[in-house]
Please model this.
Amino acid sequence: MRYRWQGLTAGLAMMAAVAPALAAEERAPVACGAMDAALPAELNGWTRVTDGAVVVGQTRALTLSPIAALTFVVAPGRAADAGTFGAVMTFDVATSGHYRVALGQGAWIDLVKDGKALTSTTHSHGPACSTIRKIVDFDLVPGRYVLQLSGAKAAAMPVMVVKA
Model:
């Protein structure tokens, strides 16, 4: 039993020594050539921003409303701070699959179908050297969805829904 504890103690000491180096490496800035130059294939349309309704595969420039002025279909999964912005919009999905919602700034994302909030499958930051700040993935079936955004700090942002 003594040897098992010695091994555990040595392992913990090694982890304590390595952890600061790993944390510093994660915070190290990445040298970028051009922003958005090397996006994954499904996000290639990110830089072609247009106005209008949310359509799968196209990036839209959204004008957000003050959070206090919005009526959500379901209560957001996270309460938004006063003075932040949000939006409620619909989009249609034609084929079942794995979809991504990408945002140009941080905000809470709720996806609603038939009056119920859906559970996301993953959350991530945008790719390095990109203007995408947040990506949330969902498994969707054909139909109409309500995309609810809340807690954004600025009143405008690009949004893109794509099939992954």
Summary: The first strand starts at residue 49 and ends at 50. The chain has two domains: 1-30, 42-163. The radius of gyration is 20 Å.
